[in-house]
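Let us walk through a complete example step by step. Step one is to write down the protein sequence. Step two is to encode the small molecule, flavin-adenine dinucleotide, as a SMILES string so that its atoms and bonds are unambiguous. Step three, shown after the inputs, is the structure prediction itself.
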Amino acid sequence: MAEDGLPHETFDVVVIGGGPGGLSAALNLVRARRRTLVVDSNRPRNAATLLARGFLTRDGISPLELRKLGRDEIERYDEGEVAFAVVEQVRALDGGGFGVTARGVRGAADIDVVASAVVIASGLAETLPALPSIRAYYGTQLHSCVECDGYEKSDAELVLIGETDDLAERALLLSQWSNDLIVFTNGVGTVTDDDERMLAARGVSVERRPIDDVVGERGVMTGVRLQDGTLIERVGGFIRPLWSPVLDYVDGLDLDRDADGLIVVDAKGRTSVPSVYAAGDSTPPGPQQLIVAAGAGAVVAAAVNRDLIGQSVAEVASVLAAPSQ
Ligand SMILES: Cc1cc2nc3c(=O)[nH]c(=O)nc-3n(C[C@H](O)[C@H](O)[C@H](O)COP(=O)(O)OP(=O)(O)OC[C@H]3O[C@@H](n4cnc5c(N)ncnc54)[C@H](O)[C@@H]3O)c2cc1C
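Step three: the predicted structure of the complex.
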């Protein structure tokens, strides 16, 4: 029973987010016989790409197919349920546990349930450099995850476009796949003179003039046009987006967050609020890979299950310790 006195469906765990982090947590929780609801707004960050790389046994799978396989695996268990909805609020209930409300998407019903524990796995939002056509090439010719998409770009004429101060480090990483690389700072990003010399020694150059747009023909990127009209021919490459978790729905919980807004967790995914856990890209260090998020989900599930056992043992102990009538 929630605070409004109305009966609400109860779950052992509500998992927020149906990416690899949340789905992996949920699969392991249902297998621990925990009644688990996954609530997913179904807007994954990687939806821009057609092929997901590097997930053992699923290299090259469509990211949407990977998630569908995950949802199907969970719903094969009586304990598992997946709903398409945007979680709007998670609130701590007076007697323990959490109320979770969500607005249905894709014609799905709204949700108002109670759970003993909550796993946050809602990933990150990303902001790309503000160039008019950049989205048109994102996920096909322009990518953000070097480890994920570097291989397919081996030895190609690449760009790295970003406005941050870690461009030299990312360019150095990228040079493992191609050193026919130009780093575009868009007049904003920082590359020190020392870093520029270090990159030049690897064949990588730095272009500091502001960009007008990424250009292409029939959806295929052909280059970068600068604001002074110069066209630099390039076939693709990488963007350095800004990443931030969108966690308004847990504002009332007062979770510890780091300087980037990511949810601080211990090695098992426990947050600073008891019975609230987090896994995947919304925890430090932020954007990783599918298999890393899935692994974190499995770690969290084991912690949730053990903590719930601990809670029920403590409840029994307090009943036994209470004076008999
Ligand atoms: C373009 C692109 C390509 C990539 N390619 C690869 C690749 O090839 N290989 C690889 O290993 N990694 C790749 N990645 C990285 C990978 O996608 C992420 O590391 C991984 O998806 C993180 O998993 P996650 O479960 O933490 O979050 P996500 O997969 O982002 O899932 C989070 C989910 O939470 C949902 N959500 C958010 N807010 C709410 C809310 N309020 N209520 C309910 N649901 C919510 C979102 O809709 C989403 O479905 C790529 C990333 C991008 C952006």
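Step four is interpretation. The chain has seven helices and 16 strands.
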